Amino acid sequence: MKPTGSVNVEIIATGDELLYGRILDTNSHWIAQRVAELGASLRRVTMIGDEPETIAAALHDALKRDAHFIIFSGGLGPSEDDLTVDSIGEALGRRTVIDEKGAEKIRAVYRRRGITDDATHRRGERMAHVLEGSTPMQNPVGFSVGMCVEEAGKKICTLPGVPSEMRGMFEAHIAPMIASTATSVFLARTYYISMVWMDFFPLYREMQRDYPDTYIKNAATPPVEGEDRNKVHTIKVDFVLEAPTVEEAEAKMSEFLADYMSRIEAVGGGRMDAVDSGNVSRD
Q1: Considering only CA atoms, which of 80, 62, 83, 60 is closest in space to residue 71?
Q2: Is this structure's pTM higher than 0.90?
Q3: Is residue 2 part of a domain?
Q4: Are 252 and 188 a contacting pair, CB within 8 Å?
């Protein structure tokens, strides 16, 4: 068993450029990191193209599962194939409208740049499309307006595909919503464990067995053969646990690490060196 938390998240990354391998989906990787830091459980990442029926189908599937937050990234720009909001609207039976606050920000910039033709302004206003009844999420970095709409007890949020804009909007709008829903905290630590190779994995599996509610995972390591198995090797190991409060999480982690170290000493000795100071995050 591993920490599960009380807040579940799904990511739906949209964009033909992702499916063709033209760009790397760094957005989902970053959101996954932040979701974990906030203590929520990322349940699934889905990558799809820009077709409206595909976007609608992905949303319908996600609504059947257990996510509290369904986060879309991409498809909020001014191009004709930026169809995320319209597609979500079709799936939910909601009308697309213009967020006037976001649209006026776009118009003002266009005016300052001397852009006056109506066609360009209409294209720009596509970046301010939201659904009727949704809560617009203003963009602190760029133009594209996101939104949060509730359906079947779940929050559906949209973020732009531009990484800097996505990060700014996530921190300004979605992170506080996840944090306010939290009822427990996650605490993460990463350590380098140095000990005789042949002793590492029996003890590692013993700790997993004795601490079933703690996530214990070693980094991938190449096989070790022959006499090298009797030598000291260093392996990176992640630990994540959950508790009702920060204080209880810290105490639980300290007890766990002390027990792990005492067992290392008991099988011949070694050391545990912290890689970072860890995160306390609310779930």
Answers
A1: 62
A2: no
A3: no
A4: no
136 lies in the same domain as 272 = no
pLDDT digits (tens, 9 = 90+) for 121-163: 889 999 999 999 999 999 999 999 999 999 999 999 999 999 9
Q: What percent of the chain clears pLDDT 70, i.e. is strictly above it?
A: 96
| Structural domain ending residue among the three candidates 156, 181, 206 | 181
Element (H, E) at 239: strand 232-243
Residue 113: inside a domain: yes
CATH number at residue 67: 3.40.980.10
User: Which residue's entry shows tokens 């203590």?
Assistant: 39
Look at the chain and report how many structural domains it folds into: 2
Burial zone of 53 (CB within 10 Å; 0-12 exposed, 13-18 middle, 19+ buried) = exposed
CA distance 234 to 191: 10
- Token readout for 165 is 């804009």
